Amino acid sequence: MTYTTFSVTIADHIAHIELNRPDELNTMVPAFWRELPEAVQKIDREAAARVIVISSTGKHFSAGMDLAVFTNGGLQHDLELGRKHERMRHMVTELQNTFTALENCRIPVLAAIQGGCIGGAVDMTTACDCRYITEEGFFTVYETKIGMTADVGTLQRLPKLIPEGLARELAYTGRRMYAEEAKACGLVNQVFSDQQTMLNEVMNIAKEIAGNSPLAVSGCKEMINYTRDHSTADSLRYMSIWQTGMFQPETDMMETFSAKMEKREPAFADLAEIGPAIKE
């Protein structure tokens, strides 16, 4: 898989997506918004990995959305006002779908953040399952500072990850939240001294996830996402329905027990490949 804004490598059931435009602070140019969902959906569709790690290169994780996204998009077209605005709505929805792909894929997505996680990068990392950061790292809802409202997921996801009052403060002020504060409020799982240490440890976490039953892990992600957006009663009801179809103790559970008895690591089957419902 070859892309222009990041590289993708897959080894030991772990897909590593690495932003690779450090000289441009890994800004999210138009190609990024097309390539990221394509890469994530391809990994998910082909069951090519059991976990995704997103990291970056250079001083900052990402400086967020590149202004070219707007200047090359629906804002500069000579259209009747209503049609121009309808086009803009469609463009924003497409941008939102880029990061929703991280939530919708069946496998966990871990973000390893160094330096600044700015603007659109906050939108992206809040759509990930887990976040890790270096000591000098920080988050900022920078859209407010440039006179716009963040529109690609931060304002919808951040209040479900940290206290609402704090999320409001960050959004209203656009101030920086550094690693220590992010850890204290639960936005990140761990803080590391440097980028390489962080990446090594995040890969170890990814390896541990990849060693578990992919079906069980996928079920965990599905249930946690559902519970976030529904009542406890509805979530328990959905859990019972999910378990009725997905709980197959004669396969992955028996493999776990057999592996323990035989003092070896369990060997689980990958998730099934998925594709279009109707094929040619």
UniProtKB/TrEMBL annotation:
Xref: Gene3D superfamilies: 2-enoyl-CoA Hydratase, Chain A, domain 1 (3.90.226.10), Lyase 2-enoyl-coa Hydratase, Chain A, domain 2 (1.10.12.10)
Domain of life where this protein originates: Bacteria
Record-linked InterPro entries: ClpP/crotonase-like_dom_sf (IPR029045), Ech1-like (IPR045002), Enoyl-CoA_hydra/iso (IPR001753), Enoyl-CoA_hydra_C (IPR014748)
Pfam families: ECH_1
Single GO biological process annotation from the record: fatty acid beta-oxidation
Signal peptide interval: none
Keywords, alphabetical: Acetylation, Fatty acid metabolism, Isomerase, Lipid metabolism, Lyase, Peroxisome
Name of protein: Enoyl-CoA hydratase
Lineage: Bacteria, Pseudomonadati, Pseudomonadota, Gammaproteobacteria, Cellvibrionales
